[in-house]
Amino acid sequence: MKIKILTTVSIVALFLTSSGFAQKKLAQTGMKFLQVSLDAKMAGMGDATTALDNLGANGLFSNPASIARQTNFVDATSGQISWIADIKYYTGGVTFAPENGNYGVLGFSFLYVNYGDFIGTLRNNQGYVETGIFNPNAYAFGLTYGKALNDKFSIGGSIKYALQNLTSGIVNITETELTKTNYKPNSLVFDFGVLYHTGIQSLDFAASIKNFSKDIQLEREQEKFQLPLTFRVGFAYNLSDMLKLDKNEYSIQLAFDSVVPRDNVEEVDLGAEFKFMNSFALRGGYLSGKDEYSVTAGIGFNKTIEGFNIGLDYAYIPWTTFSDVHKFSIHFGI
Fold first, then answer.
1. What element of type H or E holds 74?
2. Dist CA 111 CA 131 (whole Å)
3. Quick one: residue 2, left, alpha or beta (phi over 0 = left, psi -120 to 50 = alpha)?
4. How many Cβ atoms sit within 10 Å of the Cβ of residue 241?
5. What pLDDT was estimated at residue 263?
6. pLDDT digits (tens, 9 = 90+) for 136-173
7. Euclidean distance between CA atoms 36 and 41, whole angstroms
8. At 17, is the pLDDT very low, low, confident or very high (cuts 50, 70, 90)?
């Protein structure tokens, strides 16, 4: 009875929270690096992974409830993203499931973003002068906990500390000197998620809220900005059940996400993964609300040898204006 009440309250709370911000589109949010999909498998499936279960450490970057049914004692992942404008993302995470996850699954994650080198300039009466090289960057560290409350329902949550180092900015100019200050907006950031096995073959339902945080202020009151809060509702179904295929030979995973971001229009993400020989995977995805890209593709390999699991994933995202994006991930489990 208590579990049923908690299940209902969790789902209702997620929907009420989403309705509270879905109607308020501010068009601008800060610390956008928190909104980028970080795992190559997820990216290859068009980010439609909210309802995928038992993702292990990869779930740290998706729905925190998806780590709750981890079967490995330790699961780890690491990845690198070649983003637009030569921006580099470096990610990593590890999850632990002691006592076969009877006490829940605990995870740690990190993200580091290198924006590259920039030449600072300042306008004066003669034109522009250089103020030196600056190197903005960003990072986030997270702690995640997921728990399977019964054979159908899982919950999860994350707390992250995120900081964006914008380095020196000129705030006061005199005839003899420049006064600089360091802008380092930072905040605690929270993610929440639920995942539900419907009992209808492999059909799963899930919902998540990502990047819930207070407003951040730089200098003046009017300079406050919000983080890219995003609400997702997703479904996942393995078509092999309908086709009566042996999933150890052929698996056809389908996924659907409805996405409500704070700073943009609602969108739909679709994803599919065809896996054969329980090792090789081909992936594809479609995202409806993006201006610069809409389709994704990916490949993957996963193999368990004497209790040691290793996986490699790659995702390719073609952009219309900027250079194409490449994402790589490597995965370990024991």
1. strand 74-82
2. 29
3. alpha
4. 15
5. 85
6. 999 999 999 999 999 999 999 999 999 999 875 555 55
7. 13
8. very low
Domain that holds residue 129: 2-333
pLDDT at 99: 87
Angle at 331 between CA 89 and CA 318, to 5 degrees: 45
In DSSP terms, 30 is beta-bridged to none
What are 273's two structure tokens? 């993964």
Can you tell me the distance from the alpha carbon of 291 to that of 264, in angstroms, rounded to the nearest whole number? 11
CB-hemisphere CA count at 13 Å for 260?
A: 19
pLDDT tens for 229-263 read 999 999 999 999 999 999 888 999 999 999 999 88
Structural contact between residues 267 and 259, judged by C-beta atoms closer than 8 angstroms? yes
Helix locations, the chain, DSSP H: 2-22, 40-44, 240-243
CATH number of the domain enclosing 107: 2.40.160
In sequence order, the 6+-apart residues with CB closer than 8 A to the CB of 24 are 262
Q: What amino acid is encoded at 146 in this protein?
A: G
Spell out a b/e string for 31-49, using b for 16 or more CB atoms within 10 Å of the CB, else e: bebbbbbbbbbbbbbbbbb
Q: Would you call 183 helix, strand, or coil by DSSP?
A: coil
* Percent of the chain whose pLDDT exceeds 70: 85
CA–CA gap between residue 286 and residue 185 (Å, rounded): 33
Whole-prediction pTM value?
Answer: 0.86
Would you state the pLDDT for residue 307?
84
Q: Tokens representing 107? A: 């995870």
Please give the tally of structural domains in the chain. 1
User: Hey, which residues does 108 pair with through a beta bridge?
Assistant: 94, 143
